[in-house]
Design goal:
The structure is a homodimer.
Chain A (H helix, E strand, L loop, with lengths): L5 E13 L3 H4 L2 H14 L4 E8 L5 E7 L2 E8 L4 E8 L6 H11 L4 E13 L11
Antiparallel strand pairs in A: 1-5, 1-6, 2-3, 3-4, 4-5
Helix pairs in contact in A: 2-3
Chain lengths: ~130, ~130
C-alpha cells in the first residue's frame, strides 16, 4: 500500500494571553503597532490594517496579509487578549511573532495551540496556482 | 469545596469547507456578500469590511465586529476555503452563519471545530466593563 503524503495550506496559531499590562491592552495605537510589528517579524507582507478602540474599554484589530491574517481582541479590565495568527506558509516565523506579542503585552500566562488548516494530498499540490 | 463556575469571553468556530464551487470561491464580490450576510445572519453588528482578490486566484477577507470577526481565505483551484467566526457572545447564532456559508459556496465536505476563548472565573465577571 502506498501512503499518500499530506500537505497543509495554512498554519493557524490560537494564542491566549492573560495577566497582561492592562493599560497596554487598552491603547489602540500601541496594540496596532505591536500587531504590525509581529506580522513583519514573521516575514509577512501586509495589505490592510484595521484597528478600533471601544468607548468603554478594549481594542479589536486585524492585520491582513495575502491568504493570511493576524487578529486581536482585548479585554483590558481582565488583562486578557485573544490573538490569532493564520499564515499560509510553513516558512513564516510565527513563533517569533508569538514571542513578541507575549513580551510587549507583558503576559504572565499564555496558551498556544496550533491548528493545521486545509490538509491536501501531495498529488494535488501541482494544481495549486497561488502560493504566498 | 466550592467549585467556581467558569465563563467564556469568546466562541471561535474554525470552519473548513471543501469540494466547493470553484467560481464562487474566486468571485471577490460574491465572497464579500456572503460573509457580510453571514455576520448579519448571526446577529452581529459590522464595523469594517476588507476583501482582496488575488491576481492569480483566490480571495482573502475580513468582516470586523466589536470584539468579533469573520475571516475567509479561499483556494478556488482546490475548491477549499478556511473560514473563522469569532464571536464574543454565546447568544449569537453562529451556526446559522455556518450553514449559510456551507450552502452558498456549495460545500460538499465541511469540518467544524468550536474553541472556547478567554475562560474566566464567574467571580471575575463583575469586573467586565464591556460586553458585546
Amino acid at each position: 500500500m502506498i501512503k499518500t503524503k499530506k500537505e497543509i495550506l495554512g498554519k493557524h496559531i490560537v494564542l491566549e494571553i492573560s495577566e497582561c499590562n492592562n493599560k497596554k491592552l487598552n491603547d489602540v495605537e500601541f496594540v496596532e503597532k505591536i500587531m504590525v510589528k509581529a506580522a513583519l517579524t514573521a516575514g509577512l507582507e501586509i495589505s490592510d490594517v484595521v484597528f478600533n478602540q471601544f468607548k468603554s474599554q478594549g481594542v479589536t484589530g486585524v492585520v491582513m496579509i495575502a491568504e493570511s491574517h493576524l487578529t486581536i481582541h482585548t479585554w483590558p479590565e481582565l488583562g486578557y487578549a485573544a490573538v490569532d495568527l493564520f499564515t499560509c506558509s510553513q516558512s513564516f516565523n510565527t513563533f517569533a511573532a508569538v514571542d513578541l506579542i507575549k513580551e510587549k503585552f507583558e503576559a504572565k500566562r499564555t496558551e498556544v495551540e496550533e491548528i493545521k488548516r486545509g490538509t491536501i494530498k501531495e498529488n494535488k499540490l501541482s494544481s495549486l496556482i497561488h502560493f504566498c
